[in-house]
Automatic annotation (TrEMBL):
GO MF annotation, one: kinase activity
Database matches in PROSITE patterns: DAGK
Transmembrane stretches, start-end: none
Protein origin, superkingdom: Bacteria
UniProt name for this protein: Diacylglycerol kinase family protein
């Protein structure tokens, strides 16, 4: 449900200069200029990297803003999510990352930070789901779009090592590179409320939203407000047959195929062979096994009306 909102006072703007190879810093500057030009009281928190941005996020929340604005990508949003949700504050996103899939999901302008900033003052407020990933050692990470493990997480690792090109093209190149060394993984999925499943596969996506990697609809039926995780597992079908999945997944036509397993659950435990890591919101989470859980409408997001 989206509600109209009539304005804001003290606005905290968190800027991650490392997002999008520097794109986050420029987007943040444009957003701050727009908000100040409209008479808003703006306090800017800018670290030198994503880690410092996360620390500053808690400081910003402690200072009692009316709205928290994040200029960066999905990973930057998830890094400050815990204190924002705990405080019950609205969050606005100024897209400045590589994929920007949270903004894409909710119609937030991707290429105009000033217009995205206007949503702080003129936009609606929508309650959306968040997710947590809990490791066996008790470590908890938060996410807002998709968790992946397999070819997709290996692709993310390669993407984050690359310096060229920028934007979604970098992710596509990384996919092709990982295809050349394709591996199969023995997954074990234990969804809450459904039977456990053991299946060899190449990639696994667990989504609150539909897409990852800059608009790739790995979970095309995901509803970001239903409190459920959409799980997509592509089976190990052979290297050359799997090559065809690139276009099929980009078109969102993989769901319903006999070589793809999909399910929905409020929580799921995921196991796989030693060494396989999970990524969420394009950021490294850690090795499997992990337990993934959806939290229904835990976050208030600033969105177009």
């Amino acid at each position: 449900m989206t509600e109209q909102y009539g304005g804001a006072g003290h606005i905290a703007v968190l800027v991650n200069p490392a997002s999008g190879r520097g794109f986050g810093e420029g987007s943040g500057r444009a957003a701050v200029d727009r908000l100040r030009s409209r008479g808003a009281e703006v306090r800017v928190y800018q670290g030198i990297d994503a880690q410092e941005t996360a620390v500053l996020g808690r400081k910003a929340v402690d200072e009692g803003p009316d709205v928290v604005v994040v200029a960066g990508g999905d990973g930057t949003v998830s890094s400050v999510l815990e204190p924002v949700v705990e405080a019950g504050l609205p969050l606005a996103v100024i897209p400045g990352g590589t994929g920007n899939d949270l903004a894409r999901e909710h119609g937030i302008p991707l290429d105009d930070p000033a217009v995205a900033a206007d949503l702080v003052l003129d936009g609606g407020r929508k309650r959306v789901d968040t997710g947590t990933v809990t490791a066996d050692d008790g470590t908890v990470r938060h996410f807002v779009t998709v968790l992946c493990a397999g070819l997709d997480s290996l692709t993310n690792e390669r993407t984050n090592r690359m310096t060229w090109p920028t934007g979604p093209a970098r992710y596509r190149i990384a996919v092709y590179a990982e295809w050349l060394r394709l591996k199969r993984f023995g997954y074990r999925l234990e969804p809450v409320g459904a039977p456990a499943l053991a299946q060899d596969g190449y990639l696994l996506g667990i989504g609150l939203t539909r897409s990852y990697g800059g608009g790739v609809p790995i979970c095309p039926g995901a509803d970001p407000t239903d409190g459920l995780l959409d799980v997509t597992l592509v089976h190990a079908v052979g290297r050359f047959r799997f090559m065809a999945f690139d276009g099929i997944i980009k078109a969102g036509e993989h769901v319903g195929r006999p070589d793809v397993t999909t399910l929905r659950a409020p929580a799921i435990r995921v196991g796989a062979p030693a060494g396989l890591v999970a990524y969420a919101d394009g950021e490294h989470v850690g090795p499997l096994p992990v337990t993934v859980e959806a939290h229904r409408e835990a976050l208030t997001l600033c969105v177009p009306v």
